[in-house]
Amino acid sequence: MASVKASTPAALLVLALLPGCAGVLPVKQTESGPKVVESGPAEKKAQADPAESSGGVFLPQQAYDAEGKKIPYVPAPNPYTQQPAPVPPAAQAAFAHAMALMKDGDLRMARKGFWAMTKDFPELSGPWVKLAELAEQREKPEKAREYYQKALEVNPANVNAYLKQAMFERRQGEFARARDAYLEALETWNDFPEAHLNLAILYDLYMNRPEEAQPHYEAYDFLTGGSDPKVADWLIEIRRRTGIETSFIDNPPPEPEVPAEQGAEGEAVSADATSGGSPETEEQG
If residue 195 lies in a helix (H) or strand (E), which one and from where to where? Predict the structure, then answer.
């Protein structure tokens, strides 16, 4: 497994999604691992999409120094959590209140609370994301689509909104739209582990494109330091199906050639050869 510095994944699927372009609301993570809506590789549910191949884009790459040693990979920071300005306490309180109403099943009042936030705090994208979720629950997909788009207009760095949007589109059976949303998330943050994983599952399970899924399974495994054995198993399994064993991410430079020296009779003799014996080979140990 490639060396990755600061590889603990940000479990961004469960963020409160409040912050807009003005700031970030800190949320304590309680998940022990990445939260994924899609299930693992299984029976395919759709034929291959004719769209142009996009399986190998936005992948991390393991670098090596001049001596052929791995250089620890430093993932790019999440641009969403890098936004410095704090969320106003009044916005935090309003969001928490609307979330509590939503959790208690009072969806009408929750919706009113989030709508009020879009007027009182127009710089925040999170309320639009919650309105999109509520619209989906009310079986109004076009409204949900509109609200996700509005959230991303308010804050294009909200990678969580892309992720939520992609999962929504997948549930609607709009696999190409889901793919595009995952790719937009990765264009915003190349090193987003959960976007790589969910895109891989979408390609593999729903779009019947395992060759495009494999690089993103590998990217997630690489970015998380191989911490999820289930995903490691999926990667082994998909390599068997595709027949692609070469890494998309970690390809060491070729070893330098050993200089040959002339033998007594003019024949090239390996520098590894011992006097009086044959050159050592892998087969011979």
Answer: helix 193-201
